[in-house]
Amino acid sequence: MRLNRFLASAGLGSRRSVEELITQGSVRVNGQIVTNLATLIGPTDSVKVGSRLIRAELPVYAVLHKPPGFVCTADDEFERRTIFELLPPNWPRVHHVGRLDLESEGLIFVTNDGDLTHTLTHPSHEVEKEYDVLLDKPLLPDDRDKLLRGFRIEHGFAKCEGIESIKPDRVRLVLAQGLKRQIRLMLYKLGYEVKRLFRIRIGPILIEGLARGKWRFLSQKEVTALRDAKPKPKPKPKPKSKPAAAANPRPPVVKIYPTPRGPATPKKSARPGHPPVRKKVASWDKSQRRPKASHRRG
Q: Which 3-state string (H, E, C) describes the chain?
Protein backbone atom coordinates (compact mmCIF):
# COMPACT_ATOMS: atom_id res chain seq x y z
CA MET A 1 0.00 0.00 0.00
CA ARG A 2 1.28 3.49 -0.81
CA LEU A 3 2.39 5.57 2.16
CA ASN A 4 -0.17 8.35 1.71
CA ARG A 5 -3.02 5.87 1.46
CA PHE A 6 -1.68 3.96 4.48
CA LEU A 7 -1.76 7.12 6.62
CA ALA A 8 -5.23 8.11 5.39
CA SER A 9 -6.59 4.64 6.19
CA ALA A 10 -5.12 4.97 9.70
CA GLY A 11 -7.36 7.97 10.32
CA LEU A 12 -4.73 10.73 10.17
CA GLY A 13 -6.89 12.86 7.89
CA SER A 14 -7.67 13.34 4.23
CA ARG A 15 -5.25 12.37 1.51
CA ARG A 16 -4.16 15.98 1.04
CA SER A 17 -3.44 16.52 4.74
CA VAL A 18 -1.36 13.33 5.07
CA GLU A 19 0.59 14.26 1.93
CA GLU A 20 1.58 17.49 3.66
CA LEU A 21 2.85 15.48 6.64
CA ILE A 22 5.01 13.38 4.30
CA THR A 23 6.48 16.28 2.30
CA GLN A 24 7.27 18.17 5.53
CA GLY A 25 9.43 15.27 6.72
CA SER A 26 7.22 14.29 9.66
CA VAL A 27 6.97 10.61 8.66
CA ARG A 28 9.57 7.90 9.35
CA VAL A 29 9.55 4.43 7.81
CA ASN A 30 11.77 1.93 9.59
CA GLY A 31 13.58 4.82 11.30
CA GLN A 32 14.28 6.79 8.08
CA ILE A 33 12.56 10.07 7.11
CA VAL A 34 10.55 9.53 3.93
CA THR A 35 9.23 12.34 1.72
CA ASN A 36 8.26 10.29 -1.33
CA LEU A 37 4.46 9.99 -1.52
CA ALA A 38 4.67 6.78 -3.57
CA THR A 39 6.70 4.84 -0.99
CA LEU A 40 5.23 1.36 -0.60
CA ILE A 41 4.44 0.06 2.89
CA GLY A 42 4.54 -3.66 3.67
CA PRO A 43 3.01 -5.55 6.62
CA THR A 44 6.35 -5.65 8.49
CA ASP A 45 7.30 -1.96 8.05
CA SER A 46 7.28 0.40 11.02
CA VAL A 47 5.67 3.77 10.31
CA LYS A 48 5.82 6.70 12.75
CA VAL A 49 4.48 10.25 12.61
CA GLY A 50 6.56 12.11 15.16
CA SER A 51 6.82 9.67 18.06
CA ARG A 52 3.46 7.97 17.33
CA LEU A 53 3.49 4.47 15.87
CA ILE A 54 0.86 4.20 13.16
CA ARG A 55 -1.17 1.08 12.59
CA ALA A 56 -3.52 0.80 9.64
CA GLU A 57 -7.14 0.21 10.60
CA LEU A 58 -9.49 -2.06 8.74
CA PRO A 59 -11.47 -0.09 6.14
CA VAL A 60 -15.08 0.71 7.07
CA TYR A 61 -17.78 1.45 4.49
CA ALA A 62 -21.33 2.12 5.68
CA VAL A 63 -24.45 3.93 4.55
CA LEU A 64 -26.63 5.85 7.00
CA HIS A 65 -30.19 7.20 6.78
CA LYS A 66 -29.76 10.64 8.34
CA PRO A 67 -32.93 11.94 10.04
CA PRO A 68 -33.87 15.64 10.19
CA GLY A 69 -32.48 17.44 13.24
CA PHE A 70 -28.98 15.87 13.07
CA VAL A 71 -25.86 17.69 11.84
CA CYS A 72 -23.02 16.21 9.79
CA THR A 73 -20.10 16.93 12.10
CA ALA A 74 -18.17 15.09 14.79
CA ASP A 75 -18.31 17.91 17.34
CA ASP A 76 -20.96 20.63 17.20
CA GLU A 77 -20.34 23.92 19.03
CA PHE A 78 -24.09 24.39 19.63
CA GLU A 79 -24.38 20.91 21.20
CA ARG A 80 -26.83 19.67 18.57
CA ARG A 81 -27.17 15.98 17.86
CA THR A 82 -24.69 14.62 15.29
CA ILE A 83 -24.92 11.70 12.89
CA PHE A 84 -22.07 9.95 14.74
CA GLU A 85 -24.39 9.42 17.71
CA LEU A 86 -26.29 6.99 15.47
CA LEU A 87 -23.21 4.76 14.99
CA PRO A 88 -21.77 2.14 17.37
CA PRO A 89 -19.40 3.66 19.98
CA ASN A 90 -16.64 1.06 19.45
CA TRP A 91 -16.13 1.87 15.77
CA PRO A 92 -12.76 3.04 14.39
CA ARG A 93 -12.48 6.69 13.54
CA VAL A 94 -14.64 7.46 10.48
CA HIS A 95 -15.78 10.58 8.63
CA HIS A 96 -18.86 11.40 6.60
CA VAL A 97 -18.82 11.73 2.81
CA GLY A 98 -20.61 14.83 1.61
CA ARG A 99 -23.06 16.71 3.76
CA LEU A 100 -26.76 17.22 4.46
CA ASP A 101 -27.99 20.31 6.33
CA LEU A 102 -29.89 20.17 9.62
CA GLU A 103 -33.40 20.08 8.08
CA SER A 104 -32.57 17.60 5.31
CA GLU A 105 -32.60 13.82 5.53
CA GLY A 106 -31.52 10.83 3.52
CA LEU A 107 -28.53 8.84 2.39
CA ILE A 108 -25.02 9.63 3.60
CA PHE A 109 -21.82 7.54 3.65
CA VAL A 110 -19.39 7.11 6.55
CA THR A 111 -15.93 5.64 5.96
CA ASN A 112 -12.24 5.86 6.88
CA ASP A 113 -11.10 5.48 3.25
CA GLY A 114 -9.72 8.82 2.11
CA ASP A 115 -9.37 7.73 -1.53
CA LEU A 116 -13.04 6.80 -1.80
CA THR A 117 -14.00 10.10 -0.17
CA HIS A 118 -11.95 11.95 -2.77
CA THR A 119 -13.63 10.02 -5.60
CA LEU A 120 -17.13 10.79 -4.34
CA THR A 121 -16.63 14.47 -3.47
CA HIS A 122 -14.18 15.90 -6.01
CA PRO A 123 -15.95 17.97 -8.71
CA SER A 124 -13.95 16.35 -11.54
CA HIS A 125 -15.63 12.97 -10.91
CA GLU A 126 -19.20 14.39 -11.18
CA VAL A 127 -20.81 11.61 -9.13
CA GLU A 128 -24.59 11.98 -9.37
CA LYS A 129 -26.80 12.60 -6.33
CA GLU A 130 -30.59 12.36 -6.51
CA TYR A 131 -33.08 14.17 -4.25
CA ASP A 132 -36.81 13.95 -3.62
CA VAL A 133 -37.99 17.55 -3.09
CA LEU A 134 -41.39 18.77 -1.85
CA LEU A 135 -42.19 22.43 -2.69
CA ASP A 136 -44.67 24.94 -1.32
CA LYS A 137 -46.29 25.32 -4.78
CA PRO A 138 -46.21 23.64 -8.20
CA LEU A 139 -43.03 23.98 -10.27
CA LEU A 140 -43.59 26.04 -13.43
CA PRO A 141 -42.25 24.77 -16.79
CA ASP A 142 -40.15 27.93 -17.29
CA ASP A 143 -38.49 27.45 -13.89
CA ARG A 144 -37.80 23.82 -14.75
CA ASP A 145 -35.87 24.96 -17.84
CA LYS A 146 -33.94 27.51 -15.75
CA LEU A 147 -32.86 24.79 -13.30
CA LEU A 148 -31.56 22.66 -16.18
CA ARG A 149 -29.73 25.57 -17.85
CA GLY A 150 -28.26 26.74 -14.56
CA PHE A 151 -27.59 30.14 -13.04
CA ARG A 152 -25.39 31.77 -10.42
CA ILE A 153 -26.16 31.50 -6.70
CA GLU A 154 -24.28 32.55 -3.60
CA HIS A 155 -21.61 29.82 -3.87
CA GLY A 156 -21.11 29.77 -7.65
CA PHE A 157 -22.76 28.59 -10.86
CA ALA A 158 -25.35 25.90 -10.11
CA LYS A 159 -27.43 23.65 -12.35
CA CYS A 160 -29.45 20.43 -12.31
CA GLU A 161 -28.56 17.47 -14.51
CA GLY A 162 -32.08 16.07 -14.55
CA ILE A 163 -35.62 16.78 -13.29
CA GLU A 164 -38.50 14.31 -12.95
CA SER A 165 -41.99 15.43 -11.93
CA ILE A 166 -43.79 13.18 -9.43
CA LYS A 167 -46.57 15.62 -8.54
CA PRO A 168 -47.05 19.29 -9.45
CA ASP A 169 -45.33 20.32 -6.19
CA ARG A 170 -42.98 17.32 -5.87
CA VAL A 171 -39.95 16.67 -8.07
CA ARG A 172 -36.81 14.59 -8.20
CA LEU A 173 -33.63 16.52 -8.93
CA VAL A 174 -30.28 15.07 -10.02
CA LEU A 175 -27.08 17.00 -9.26
CA ALA A 176 -23.46 16.40 -10.22
CA GLN A 177 -22.23 19.29 -8.04
CA GLY A 178 -21.87 19.67 -4.30
CA LEU A 179 -22.36 23.37 -3.57
CA LYS A 180 -23.49 24.28 -0.06
CA ARG A 181 -27.31 24.24 0.26
CA GLN A 182 -27.45 24.18 -3.54
CA ILE A 183 -31.03 22.95 -4.03
CA ARG A 184 -32.55 25.23 -1.41
CA LEU A 185 -30.74 28.31 -2.75
CA MET A 186 -31.60 27.58 -6.39
CA LEU A 187 -35.29 27.11 -5.66
CA TYR A 188 -35.39 30.08 -3.29
CA LYS A 189 -33.98 32.30 -6.04
CA LEU A 190 -36.85 31.18 -8.31
CA GLY A 191 -39.45 31.98 -5.63
CA TYR A 192 -40.00 28.54 -4.05
CA GLU A 193 -39.66 27.25 -0.50
CA VAL A 194 -38.44 23.69 0.14
CA LYS A 195 -40.74 21.93 2.59
CA ARG A 196 -38.88 18.58 2.51
CA LEU A 197 -35.52 17.54 1.07
CA PHE A 198 -34.70 13.84 0.96
CA ARG A 199 -31.56 12.38 -0.70
CA ILE A 200 -32.37 8.98 -2.12
CA ARG A 201 -29.24 8.12 -4.16
CA ILE A 202 -25.49 8.70 -4.43
CA GLY A 203 -23.95 7.17 -7.55
CA PRO A 204 -25.37 3.63 -7.88
CA ILE A 205 -26.37 3.27 -4.19
CA LEU A 206 -30.04 3.74 -3.21
CA ILE A 207 -31.49 4.21 0.26
CA GLU A 208 -34.34 1.75 -0.32
CA GLY A 209 -35.17 -0.45 2.69
CA LEU A 210 -33.11 1.55 5.21
CA ALA A 211 -35.22 3.02 8.03
CA ARG A 212 -34.67 6.54 9.37
CA GLY A 213 -31.72 6.66 11.79
CA LYS A 214 -30.44 3.19 10.79
CA TRP A 215 -27.22 2.16 9.04
CA ARG A 216 -25.73 -0.84 7.25
CA PHE A 217 -22.36 -1.90 5.88
CA LEU A 218 -21.74 -1.66 2.15
CA SER A 219 -20.89 -4.87 0.33
CA GLN A 220 -17.63 -5.23 -1.55
CA LYS A 221 -19.59 -5.13 -4.78
CA GLU A 222 -21.17 -1.80 -3.79
CA VAL A 223 -17.78 -0.35 -2.81
CA THR A 224 -16.34 -1.34 -6.19
CA ALA A 225 -19.33 0.24 -7.94
CA LEU A 226 -18.75 3.48 -6.01
CA ARG A 227 -15.08 3.58 -6.99
CA ASP A 228 -16.07 3.16 -10.63
CA ALA A 229 -19.00 5.59 -10.44
CA LYS A 230 -18.96 7.81 -13.52
CA PRO A 231 -21.56 10.16 -14.93
CA LYS A 232 -23.53 9.18 -18.00
CA PRO A 233 -21.70 10.33 -21.14
CA LYS A 234 -23.20 13.45 -22.59
CA PRO A 235 -24.28 13.16 -26.24
CA LYS A 236 -21.80 14.73 -28.61
CA PRO A 237 -23.18 17.30 -31.07
CA LYS A 238 -23.60 15.89 -34.53
CA PRO A 239 -21.24 17.41 -37.13
CA LYS A 240 -22.91 19.51 -39.74
CA SER A 241 -23.22 17.45 -42.93
CA LYS A 242 -22.49 19.00 -46.28
CA PRO A 243 -25.52 19.34 -48.60
CA ALA A 244 -25.82 16.39 -50.96
CA ALA A 245 -25.09 17.02 -54.64
CA ALA A 246 -28.13 17.30 -56.91
CA ALA A 247 -29.08 14.21 -58.91
CA ASN A 248 -29.05 16.19 -62.19
CA PRO A 249 -26.56 18.99 -61.71
CA ARG A 250 -27.05 22.10 -63.81
CA PRO A 251 -24.50 22.29 -66.63
CA PRO A 252 -22.01 25.13 -66.40
CA VAL A 253 -22.82 28.30 -68.27
CA VAL A 254 -20.66 28.82 -71.37
CA LYS A 255 -20.33 32.44 -72.40
CA ILE A 256 -20.02 33.08 -76.14
CA TYR A 257 -18.48 36.36 -77.16
CA PRO A 258 -19.07 37.91 -80.67
CA THR A 259 -16.28 37.71 -83.21
CA PRO A 260 -14.59 41.15 -83.56
CA ARG A 261 -15.42 42.89 -86.84
CA GLY A 262 -13.05 44.56 -89.27
CA PRO A 263 -13.03 48.28 -90.19
CA ALA A 264 -16.37 49.71 -91.19
CA THR A 265 -16.99 50.27 -94.90
CA PRO A 266 -19.11 53.15 -96.22
CA LYS A 267 -22.59 52.25 -97.29
CA LYS A 268 -23.44 52.49 -100.98
CA SER A 269 -26.07 54.88 -102.18
CA ALA A 270 -29.51 53.42 -102.36
CA ARG A 271 -30.04 55.18 -105.74
CA PRO A 272 -27.67 54.68 -108.66
CA GLY A 273 -25.79 57.78 -109.82
CA HIS A 274 -25.99 59.47 -106.43
CA PRO A 275 -23.03 60.00 -104.04
CA PRO A 276 -22.73 57.65 -101.07
CA VAL A 277 -24.39 58.52 -97.77
CA ARG A 278 -22.39 60.91 -95.63
CA LYS A 279 -21.35 59.32 -92.32
CA LYS A 280 -20.22 61.00 -89.12
CA VAL A 281 -16.67 60.09 -88.13
CA ALA A 282 -15.40 60.89 -84.65
CA SER A 283 -12.11 62.76 -84.25
CA TRP A 284 -10.43 63.87 -81.02
CA ASP A 285 -10.99 67.45 -79.90
CA LYS A 286 -7.96 68.26 -77.72
CA SER A 287 -9.48 71.44 -76.30
CA GLN A 288 -12.63 69.75 -75.06
CA ARG A 289 -11.00 66.30 -74.45
CA ARG A 290 -13.85 64.55 -76.17
CA PRO A 291 -14.54 63.16 -79.61
CA LYS A 292 -15.47 65.77 -82.19
CA ALA A 293 -17.87 64.96 -84.98
CA SER A 294 -16.84 65.69 -88.57
CA HIS A 295 -18.24 64.87 -91.94
CA ARG A 296 -16.52 63.28 -94.80
CA ARG A 297 -17.46 61.51 -97.93
CA GLY A 298 -16.86 57.86 -98.09
A: CEHHHHHHHCCCCCHHHHHHHHHCCCEEECCEECCCCCCECCCCCCEEECCEECCCCCCCEEEEEECCCCECCCCCCCCCCEHHHHCCCCCCCCEEECCCCCCCEEEEEEECCHHHHHHHHCHHHCCCEEEEEEECCCCCHHHHHHHHHCEEECCEEECCCEEEEEECCEEEEEECCCCCCHHHHHHHHCCCCEEEEEEEEECCEECCCCCCCCEEECCHHHHHHHHCCCCCCCCCCCCCCCCCCCCCCCCCCCCCCCCCCCCCCCCCCCCCCCCCCCEEEEEEECCCCEEEEEEECC
